[in-house]
Amino acid sequence: xxxxxxxxxxxxxxxxxxxxxxxxxxxxxxxxxxxxxxxxxxxxxxxxxxxxxxxxxxxxxxxxxxxxxxxxxxxxxxxxxxxxxxxxxxxxxxxxxxxxxxxxxxxxxxxxxxxxxxxxxxxxxxxxxxxxxxxxxxxxxxxxxxxxxxxxxxxxxxxxxxxxxxxxxxxxxxxxxxxxxxxxxxxxxxxxxxxxxxxxxxxxxxxxxxxxx
Length: 213
Hints:
Elements: H1 4-13, H2 20-31, H3 39-52, E1 56-60, H4 66-74, E2 80-85, H5 91-101, E3 107-111, H6 114-120, E4 125-130, H7 137-147, E5 148-157, H8 177-192, E6 196-201, E7 207-212
Parallel strand pairs: 1-2, 1-4, 2-3, 4-5
Antiparallel strand pairs: 5-7, 6-7
Helix pairs in contact: 3-4, 6-7
């Protein structure tokens, strides 16, 4: 079997890239050690924007706004995106990036804890991108399912935790054991919930695609 990292590097080398401002935002984020979605994750999101043509997107976890802007760039002209961020140092940067680059005014930024904000949202989303605190995914799930339309898509990022998710809890550091247990619980729930049809992919650091039945 070809080494996974080499295969990923080869696939990423074929990617034509994004619009110049997104490439610059990505470069700046890496320079500032801000976590953003990986190249192969970007490619999958761009594909899903074109394939599923979502009209009402929710993003849980905004950071500096890169993935929201990527979805805005590659989605339909009438798509609306709501994104949630609670880290106070990143909110002004995201807001400035939206002012500068969200020229079609697709994006609405909500500031605060996603656990509380999700409870206030009404049903009607046809695409949810989960990319926040990994240990909270299982807690976010009930409200995400409540507001996701039937036939809608829930996409969750970083679910394999750089491979730690397959290890015994005793093989991960003590400080990571709660996150490890909650992610394994989350993956089990996605695969066994009768309201969902889920596939787990090894794209990026692991992604799940879940269709609400």
